[in-house]
Structure prediction request, 402 residues.
Amino acid sequence: MTRISYAASLALSAAVLASLTLPVEAATYSTLYNFQHLCCGNPDGRLLLRSGSLFGTGQGGVGGYHGQVFKLTPSGGSWKEKTLFRFDGTDGSNPYAGLIQDSTGALYGTTGVGGAYGNGTVFKLAKSGGVWTETVLWSFGSGSDGQEPSCDLVRDSSTGTLYGTTYSGGVYGLGTVFDLTYSGGVWTENVLHSFGSIGGDGINPEAGLHRDTAGALYGTTEEGGTHGVGTVFELALSDGVWTETVLWNFGSIGGDGQGPEGELVEGSKGVFYGTTLDGGVYGLGTVFKLAKSGGVWTDTVLWNFEGGGSRDGAYPFAGLHLDSTGNLYGTTYSGGDYGYGTVFELTYSGGWIETVFHSFGGSGDGQSPGLGTVIEDSAGNVYGTAYVGGTYGYGTVWEVTP
Prediction:
């Protein structure tokens, strides 16, 4: 899996705020857990909060292991970690993404490589008699199948169907959108779209999908499109046929973002928010809004990451969390006070204002938040992971109270 940084120096557009307020920290930050061993560290995906416990995945591994699923539970004023499962390569390897859970408590996720054909898996973890058991639901890489999924899955609660993306593979080798359906005790994979099938199509989707109430699927591609620097797309089902529509080609306007890798989040009236890893005025990534008016989709850059001496972050890999009041929360992979990333909030008050809640890389702190979108609990606390750093160097799980 590649993470491409496009070198860009783009002109200021009318959509950009005229004044970029220097970020000010206004939150309480806590490291909840420092991963202590290479075998159980390097968390990268989105966390799952259930009944007060946090579930996640990591890419660490020694002695033939290739990543793990973990659970963190508060106990006596601290958090205790339990490894629920370790991948050995044959059953998947390198889980980049986070987990989802069904009504029975079973967990579902993806691995980027490994499995029967070495090109990744979809897996299920179910608990019985106090023991978590893994089942590989699908191994990617057979025929014109997709390859290398790094996405969070989406699940239809009424049918149990799972939806996701693969970074490569498919008919053209440039990635897919797929679903997995269960019938008669067998899981079957269907490729809903192979990227590269039409002129100007996006390629190489890194992120998972958003599924709206009508069942349409929305996502991003890291590359491709009219200008070669990524797209936002929609897949809609009509008369049994899935049809893709490119809603936005990045690079279409001056100062536009490039290379989106995070998932989209939907606001009111069908508005979507997301991040681009690169591009924007400073070439260090953006936060954008995509809205439809008069049948036309328009992209607005809400924030240009500045990095460097500004204390602002740079290169946001992950998507955004949208809270109930319309505030946006996210992370950047680098930038901030120490160069190892930030946790930020964007609020709207006559214009979009950024607040940096935390700069990673201080003494004993985590470093470099990755692909995982932050999550929020019922009290408004925000949780996420840092891929490396911390007391032992193998990453952390953290909490911010705005």
User: Anything to note?
Assistant: Confidence is low (pLDDT under 50) at residues 1-22.
